[in-house]
Amino acid sequence: MIFNKTAGWIRVVILLTAMLPVASLAQNGGNLYKVNAEIEKKVIDWRRDFHEHPELSNREFRTSKKVAGHLRSLGMEVTEGIAITGVKGVLKGGHPGPVVALRADMDALPIVEKTDVPFTSKVDVIFGQHMASMLEAGKIACKSGPIMAGASDFKIIVQGKGSHGSAPWSSVDPIAISAQIVNSIQTIVSRNINIVENPAVVTVGAIQGGNRSNIIPESVEMEGTIRVFSDEDQKFIYKRLTAIAENIAEAEGGKAIVKVPYTMEYPVTINDEALSSQMLPTLEQSAGKNNVVEIKPITGAEDFSMFAQKVPGLCYYIGGMPKGQKPSTAAPHHTAEFFLDESSFVTGVNTMTNLVLDYLDMYPEMAGTSGEE
Predict the structure, then answer these.
(1) How many angstroms separate the CA atoms of 292 and 129, rounded?
(2) CATH assignment of the domain containing 172
(3) Least enclosed by CB within 10 Å: which of 162, 166, 270, 276?
């Protein structure tokens, strides 16, 4: 969703909340919190409805229809069908000013969005928030600079020569070759990457080969993930991974076909340093100064990073863990036990609303100067 400033009143949609005219916090003495508190139940009801009717990526037909319909009811210019089911809502102001974009997920599972959508509205900054099941409700976690890893995947196909298990000397065993490759992959980070400066991860997460206990197969396939915090490390890991697999396979009489990146490649999520410093008071205002904590970089990845490559971005986390619970006992995201304390949702609403209002008030003379589309 994209917003710019009006004469003195702006209307903001945060997480599809009900549209109400509000002034900036400075002008309105904090009435915005009262407005958001009044619609908290509606926010929770929406969340529960979407949670009860999950839709996979590019299949969010019910969800996107509800989103588009609500945005239209608020008087926004709505575009549907972006990358199949994406929805964009634009609220235009009557005076020059900066332009702010807000982004929200609506798919039931994290996926790679493969699209090249021509955005017609110029955006100055973008804010993104993510729930955190291991951060106490009411808290906000953020940091300047790299906050989430760049991520890519790989696939290695090891080709050998099959034989009966009773005569392994007749084979070029792709399982034995693959075992050597997996072990050697573990040295890419431990013996080549300065993890004090930039952490990195190379993990083999899937391997398939053979279907009988007494048959050596013709081939083995493995897939894995790479996480980095610098483009240089990513390029090095690609090169090293390829060399290890190909050379080990060749030395054993086989062949390795390496596909990296395989299906996806996310850049590092980097919070703009100037924007982070500029908006820190807003985060502290939203949750309380003592409730805003600085976190270390996370090796998870986020497609918000692609937007942040185009314009200055700020990504942060809203705590969703019940107060008093130990983080070690909280279920991680994307697990069957995943749970969020719903009292945290209004913190997210307040934070995104404040970020938009405060940023627009900072630059009343600007008019979408980023030049990116």
Answers:
(1) 14
(2) 3.30.70.360
(3) 166
Q: Are residues 194 and 55 in the same domain?
A: no
Asked whether 6 and 94 are in contact (CB, 8 A), the reply is yes
70 is in an annotated binding site: no
Q: Which residues contact 173 (CB under 8 A, 6 or more apart)?
A: 160, 216, 252
Catalytic site residue from 266, 316, 317, 359:
266
In whole angstroms, give the CA distance from residue 366 to residue 315. 23
Same domain, 272 and 258: no
10 and 136 both lie in a single domain: yes
What is the structure's pLDDT at 58?
Answer: 85
Separation CA 312–CA 328 (nearest Å): 34
Residue range(s) defining the domain that contains residue 282: 2-148+268-362
24 & 134 share domain: yes
Does pLDDT of 162 surpass 50? yes
Burial class (CB in 10 A: 0-12, 13-18, 19+), 74: middle
Residue 262 known to be catalytic: no
pLDDT tens-place string over residues 191-225: 999 988 889 999 999 999 999 999 999 999 999 99
Between 149 and 113, where is the model more confident? 149
334 carries a ligand binding annotation:
yes
Residues 224 and 280 in one domain: no
User: Rounded to an integer, what is the distance from CA 314 to the centroid of its chain?
Assistant: 12
The percentage of the chain sitting over the pLDDT mark of 90, rounded to a whole number, equals: 64
Specify if 54 maps to a domain. yes
Q: Cβ neighbours of residue 116 under 8 Å, at least 6 residues apart?
A: none
Instruction: Work out how many domains the chain is built from and give that number.
Output: 2
Q: Does residue 369 lie in a domain region?
A: no
The CA distance from 55 to 61, in Å, is 8
Let me know whether 93 and 121 are in one domain: yes
266 is catalytic: yes
Catalytic residue among 221, 246, 342, 363: 342
β-bridge partners, 132: 319
Mean pLDDT of all residues belonging to the chain:
85
